Fold this sequence. Notes:
The protein is an alpha/beta fold. It has one domain: 3-Layer(aba) Sandwich (Rossmann fold). The protein contains 10 helices and 14 strands. α2 (153-179) runs parallel beside α6 (251-269) and α3 (194-207) packs antiparallel against α5.
Amino acid sequence: MRVSGHSFSRKHSPPRLPSEATSVPQNDREQHLGEAAVPNETSSIGLGAAVLSGLSLLGVACTANPGSAAVTEIHVEAPPEGEICLRQDLPTARVIVVDDYWKADEHTTHGEIVEAELSRDFQVGENADITMERQVVSLYGGEHGIDEGRPGSLESYLREHFAGRMSRDADAMQNILEGGGPRGVIHQSQGASQSRAVDPIYYRALREDAFGVKLQEQLGMEPTNLDSRLEKAELLQRLLQTADHIFSQDEAVLQARQRLRGLQDQLHERGFIHVISAGNQGYLYRDMVELGVEIPTNFFTNDFASEHSIIVGAADNQSKEVRGESLGVANLANPNSGAHIAADGVDRPLTVDGNFGHHSGSSYAAPQVSNEILDMLRMDTDITRDEVLQQLQRAATPVPGAESFLGAGILAHPDMLLCRH
């Protein structure tokens, strides 16, 4: 998807009615793209007028498989009498996308798919009033020789996942600070949680006997075929303990986290609003519960998120109806990730590089929240992060019993965007 240098404007359409809703099959897993280390760069693309295309009241979020959260049937009410208040002459809003664009000239990247979701309601036009910029942050770090049996490989892998990722993320935040310009939304559909580090190597150990043997050796275990429930539970528990130790006590990780938090504090003071996805390890969560594994504190917390961030979980509007359907937690959704709000992240229909497909994950839930915040910034250039969050949460549709996954509930358009008569 070559978007650099283009401008977009919001499509004008009436509020979507239930009869216009479409049904889309559910995917359980986010479509992950390869990541690899790449230097930070910045490029700019213009996005156009942020006039709301109508009140599709529903945004549901998708993360990893949630587990058996209690969910009740939700009926989203039709919008109150009024009209969309955004005008063409409102100020420009700025969004900076922090994501992976490695080898974008050769294949479709994760960042480009996220941009497609961010620009879903826009069409090419003149007089662009939303600008979109990129900060390239690739997250891939490899598995550091675990499959080769090198001593200390597991610790090296975990250290790179936490310290390496946060260091590259801090570089991107430093670039934003030094680049100047007006405040805006920093959008990030990336993560560096313990769950994200453990997920790939645990399931690879179950799939590949040779890798499973090497991983057990790294953990000081007597190698087995990992056929029994007890063997799987022991492997996963030891893996969690090792990850938690590196995450919370390794000096390189602590220093990287301290640097990142300091830069995030500075960006917050300048008025930037950081929106970030909650993660996609719900399947791992359910397996941990089934195996009776003790889950460390903050295991699902995205370490890229600070106290100033707005964290977006993933919900599932199963039939994609606007209202009158049972809505709940996406199978991908993380629990206890600190989510403030949720948006639809299951089978999002997107066209990227001319190819149409359905994409699932909290990566595609978070952009919907960023879009709402961009509209808020255009309406009120002085609105604060706390005021933004209050508007979003006040307008959200709650899902009783699913707060650990979805926060205040499912995204809805804030009342501030309606003209009252």
